[in-house]
Amino acid sequence: MRVTLLGTGTSMGVPIIGCACPVCISADVRDKRLRTAALIETDGLTIAIDCGPDFRQQMLQHRVQHLDAVLFTHAHRDHTGGLDDVRAYNLWQQKPMPVYATQRVQQILKNHYDYVFVEDNKYAGAPNVELHTILNHPFTVNNRVTVTPIEALHGNDPVLGFRIHDFTYLTDASHVNSREEEKISGSKVLVLNALRQKKHWSHFNLPQALELINRLQIPKAYLTHISHQMGLHHEVESNLLPPHVRLAYDGLQITL
Ligand SMILES: [Zn+2]
Ligand SMILES: [Zn+2]
Ligand SMILES: [Zn+2]
């Protein structure tokens, strides 16, 4: 199984338009973060987790020539803003793109992308997606890969993380209850959101993410969905993180 972190930045990305802080003007490529998304290659399938506004650029950078499915964590635009660009895969694969999302996320997608979901007189150039409804219950992608959702709170809204084999990916979480935490336990690798050092109402900050990783005794963890307020990549890693926790960066690949 191979995981590629396509983007590791918070909703505005890093650098932020118009910002001249030390992180936004850093020359370190690890301080340049596209919007958060991941690509999972396992059991012969290639699956995207989220499809944000940088989706096209991410797929081009990583030369992803075939995509079997998209899984959505939640419906915020920084995770869904690239849905129109699945058109390229419709063209090459000559079929609708399977999209796995909760009813709640599907409802928002239908509002944001009304032209994709119209029944009559659909524009021929619009993307074709095939919706699969997921619940907080294990499901299989294309009848091949079993995925266990982990439900968390993102401020007041539900968000899903996904466990596939011994890998768990959870972003945009600010609270996980103990029953859901159990599903993460035993993961060999966890990718978890940590927005910045200071507290935030809808995202784990650095101390909260580290506390969860330690409590669940996760042997290897990477922090994602990072804001420019986190600090410079090399400074945060060398001063604030234990060796088994690293800051994620765009393009990071993890093999399990
Ligand atoms: Zn987000
Ligand atoms: Zn900045
Ligand atoms: Zn969000």
Give the cofactors and ligands: zinc ion
What is the structural class? alpha/beta
Q: How many independent structural domains?
A: 1
CATH class: Alpha Beta
Q: What is the total tally of β strands?
A: 14
CATH topology: Metallo-beta-lactamase, Chain A
- Main sheet summary: 7 strands, mixed
**How many helical elements?**
8
The CATH superfamily title: Ribonuclease Z/Hydroxyacylglutathione hydrolase-like
Oligomeric state of this protein: single chain
Give the neighbour order of strands across the main sheet.
6-5-4-3-2-1-14
N to C succession of SSEs: EEEHEHHEHHEEEEEHEHEHEE
Uncertain runs: none
- Taken as a percent bin, the fraction of beta residues is 25-35%
Rg computed from alpha carbons, rounded to a whole number of angstroms: 18 Å
Distance separating the two termini: 5 Å
Mean pLDDT: 98
User: What's the overall geometry?
Assistant: globular
Residue share in helix: 10-25%
**Architecture (CATH level 2) name:** 4-Layer Sandwich
